[in-house]
Specification:
Two copies of one chain form a homodimer. By secondary structure, chain A is mainly alpha-helical. Chain A has one domain: 434 Repressor (Amino-terminal Domain), CATH 1.10.260. Chain A is 58% helix and 11% strand. Chain A has four helices and one strand; from the N terminus they run H-H-H-H-E. The longest helix of chain A has 14 residues. Chains A and B meet through helix 1, helix 4 and strand 1 of A and helix 1, helix 4 and strand 1 of B. Strand 1 of chain A pairs antiparallel with strand 1 of chain B. Chain A binds a DNA duplex through helix 3.
Chain lengths: 65, 65
DNA sequence: TGGATTTATACCCGAACGGGAATAAACTAA
DNA sequence: TTAGTTTATTCCCGTTCGGGTATAAATCCA
């Protein structure tokens, strides 16, 4: 799923024609975080991830594996 | 959604007749973490949350808001 | 090909997560 | 009630996340 999360963010970002820096600013997180996120880092903090997802009308939730 | 995550864990835990201590041990996380989780703390680390969810065949994923 | 833009990697460091333990509170049963 | 179990609150403290920055690598066009 982490690959999915990373890909979701990456594709959404590109769909909005944003670069990582712009996305970081819009989401209110650091550039480093966007990079960790798009590279599938697994130890991210949920609240920060949700800050980014909310820009795209999404959030973290429980899904079946 | 955080309330949902908290409630999901809590109801699953009870469905398996586990107390927080047992769940913590089975998931390989600290008791403090289970408590933070069930009380809806938003700044949890994704990997730790997934450690717990995997016991119930679930995981964190992107969902619509 | 070369220059500009974008992305990736590496470092420092403050802030806070999470483990563990102690204590208190809440709940249940006898 | 009282004892026993479970859950909640609070502390110390090591580990690491995430911001910021600098540098390198990759990508994109003209």
């Amino acid at each position: 799923m982490n690959q999915n999360l990373a890909n979701y963010i990456k594709s959404k970002r590109k769909a909005f024609s944003l670069n990582q820096k712009d996305l970081a600013e819009k989401a209110g997180v650091g550039l480093r975080f966007i990079r960790d996120l798009e590279q599938g880092k697994k130890t991210l903090r949920m609240d920060k991830v949700n800050q980014v997802l909310s820009l795209f009308g999404a959030e973290l939730g429980v899904v079946d594996r």
